[in-house]
Design brief:
The structure is a single chain. The chain is of the alpha/beta class. It has 2 domains: 2-73 and 230-401, Alkaline Phosphatase, subunit A; 91-226, no CATH class. Helix content is 35%, strand content 19%. It has helices at 24-27, 31-37, 56-63, 68-71, 75-82, 122-136, 187-200, 204-211, 234-238, 249-257, 276-288, 300-306, 310-335, 380-385, 396-401, and strands at 2-8, 41-45, 91-101, 112-114, 141-147, 150-156, 219-226, 242-245, 261-263, 293-298, 339-343, 361-367, 389-390. It has an 8-stranded mixed sheet with strand order 9-8-10-1-11-12-2-13, sandwiched between helices. Helix 5 (75-82) crosses helix 10 (249-257), helix 6 (122-136) packs across helix 7 and helix 12 packs antiparallel against helix 13 (310-335).
């Protein structure tokens, strides 16, 4: 038996008037997904436990069968593992976004315009991160380049309990009240972020981006601290050889910490303009190479939700269906071996909110061996109407393997 798990990150949404009171999932032309859903087990699931922040590390950890309340140590150390950073027990990892702040006024009065700096390219961001490390790094802290706007700071004896604000939650707002505070242990974090603006705002990379009409990546924003994570072996737990395919260091890190193989795909960007064909080919080749379980994560719908790009969110869902799901399904069917396909977003990322929510998400499990009474269209409403609810996402693996 082979298993494909497909995660269109942040795909779930609310009904939107301009889409004829439909959600992007309802609006999208996703023929394969809907056809499989008609004979699939369909329901809803909560991947983020009550009391936890609805972030992708928590949700994807749950889908991969690890209880976030036990194993979640923050997203940053997972990303650090994916980047090949060997964390020591006394080190804390921090996500370091390069974000766009408004130019006017002092640092505290600036507006956060974009958490991704127009989805800055990795080569551009690498020059900025190297400048930050040269000016702000020392024997206790070091900056590492990740992908696009997502980077990492490792800090020896750093505070791993500080409660930072997530930058994508305050888009369009004045940052003053959301910055680290001096009176609760955040003074060093505040000073580093403020100093980063002075280093980056007129950096040659950002001056060139302004010349091209793009937003500058003119400040670092720290968040999601954590110590080195420890996850059980996925193979020991389930007896399956697992592979993870994602453009996002966070997802790779979860897989690597669980002893799974991680495949990098050239041109996989983490946004709507990604190498869909490459991800499909990587999944097919993973199965050919002996993988029993392939976990394909696609970030595009989530980024479109954060950026309030409605049309692109619909397009990203359609591309996932056409360029990833269809060819992998056709390959699995051609082998003559039994297989299952599970599809679900990790969490909703509604266009109207531009951030994640903790609401349940629709899921479907297709089996080549069985026929279920599914739904005519795979979306939030039809899944909820099935009245089949899984309270804890980490139990989905039991359902998939049953």
């Amino acid at each position: 038996m082979k298993y494909l798990v497909l995660i269109p990150d942040g795909m779930a949404d609310d009904k939107i008037a301009s889409l004829g009171n439909k959600t992007p999932m309802e609006k999208a032309d996703k023929k394969t997904m809907d056809a499989l859903a008609a004979v699939s087990l369909v329901g809803t699931v909560s991947n983020v436990p009550n009391g936890m922040v609805p972030e992708s590390d928590t949700a994807n950890m749950a889908i991969l069968s690890f209880d976030p309340k036990i194993y979640s140590k923050g997203r940053s150390p997972l990303e650090a593992v994916s980047m090949g950073i060997e964390m020591k027990p006394d080190e804390t990892a921090y996500r370091c976004n390069v974000v766009t702040l408004s130019d006017d006024g002092d640092y505290d009065s600036k507006i956060i315009l974009d958490h991704s700096a127009d989805e800055i390219t990795t080569p551009e961001a690498d020059l900025l991160i190297k400048s930050l490390d040269e000016k702000l790094g020392n024997e206790y802290r070091k900056f590492y380049t990740g992908v696009s706007y997502r980077h990492c700071l490792i800090w020896k004896n750093g505070n791993d309990k500080y409660d930072f604000m997530r930058p994508h939650d305050i888009l369009g707002k004045c940052i003053g009240e959301y910055l680290p505070k001096k009176d609760n242990g955040g003074e060093e974090f505040y000073r580093l972020m403020r100093d980063s603006f002075d280093i980056l705002n007129h950096h040659p990379v950002n001056e060139e981006r302004r010349r091209r009409g793009l937003k500058p990546a003119n400040s670092a924003w720290l968040w999601s601290p954590g110590k080195k994570p420890q996850l059980p072996s996925f193979k020991d737990k389930w007896g399956l050889d697992g592979t993870v395919i994602s453009a996002v260091d966070l997802i790779k890190g979860i897989g690597l910490c669980a002893g799974m193989r991680s495949i990098d795909v050239d041109g996989a960007t983490g946004n709507v303009h990604t190498n869909y064909d490459g991800k499909a080919n990587a999944a097919i080749n993973a199965f050919k190479d002996g993988a029993d379980y392939v976990y394909v994560h696609v970030e595009g719908p989530d980024e479109c939700g954060h950026r309030a790009e409605l049309e692109n969110k619909v397009i990203s869902i359609e591309m996932i269906d056409k360029k990833i799901l269809r060819p992998v399904y056709d390959y699995l069917r051609s082998t003559g071996e039994d297989f299952k396909i599970m599809i679900l977003p990790d969490h909703p990322t509604p266009i109207r909110l531009r951030t994640h929510t903790i609401d349940p998400v629709p899921f479907m499990i297709y089996s080549s061996k069985e026929t279920n009474s599914g739904v005519d269209k795979f979306c939030e409403e039809t899944a909820a109407d099935k009245n089949f609810y899984i309270a804890n996402g980490y139990n989905l693996m039991d359902l998939l393997l049953k």
